[in-house]
Design goal:
By secondary structure, the protein is mostly beta strands. The protein has no helices and 20 strands. Strands 4, 5, 6, 9, 15, 17 and 20 form a 7-stranded antiparallel sheet that branches. Strands 7, 8, 10, 11, 14 and 16 form a 6-stranded antiparallel sheet that branches. β1 and β2 form a beta hairpin. It is flat, with a radius of gyration of 18 Å. The two termini are 28 Å apart.
Length: 181
């Protein structure tokens, strides 16, 4: 769809159903920079139980093909969740942890964001947003995976859990933004 749509005060470029004030499907060219945006919404309830040190949250895996060899990539992850036990979220690019200045620690664990602070009891439903910065070094394809790591066995994280017994839909997502340097 190459057309523009104005619907309920929202402008869509390349989409007939704009979901934001400006909803662009494709690349944005501004002042000589090129931005590529890849979005991965997670629809439906997902639960992951850890029986070891960590587990990949497969529904959040997002892949993309960079348009430039040395661009800056912003990886934004929004989680709506309920989690058991003190745990953290990690993000990896092509199998390697992304170092981040925003990394936080809880107990002995280093991670992007801790998801529970409550002394090994089930947490109340929560939501978190975090962004990591990744400089590409000529990778032809990049796969970002999100991991949940707990300090105990049999911990569970439930994505799209809005309330203790209610599963929400489409509340978790990953947005990859590539910015040409």
């Amino acid at each position: 769809n190459l057309g523009m749509t104005l619907k309920a005060g929202r402008l869509g470029i390349g989409t007939s159903e704009p979901r934001a004030a400006l909803d662009v499907r494709g690349d944005i060219h501004a002042n000589g920079c090129v931005v590529q945006v890849v979005t991965n919404p997670v629809v439906g309830p997902y639960a992951y139980t850890i029986s070891g040190a960590e587990i990949e949250m497969a529904a959040l895996t997002t892949s993309f093909t960079p348009k430039f060899s040395d661009s800056l990539v912003l990886v934004q992850v929004y989680l709506s969740y309920e989690a058991d036990y003190n745990a953290v979220i990690y993000i990896r690019a092509n199998g390697k942890d992304i170092p981040t200045g925003q990394g936080r620690s809880y107990g002995q664990q280093e991670g992007v964001i801790p998801v529970s602070y409550d002394g090994n009891n089930a947490s109340t439903p929560n939501s978190s947003t975090f962004v990591v910065h990744h400089i590409l070094s000529g990778e032809p394809n990049v796969e970002y995976k999100i991991y949940y790591r707990a300090n105990t066995n049999n911990a569970t994280i439930r994505l799209n859990r809005g309330y203790s017994s209610v599963d929400e839909k489409g509340m978790c997502y990953v947005v990859i933004t590539e910015i040409a340097q």
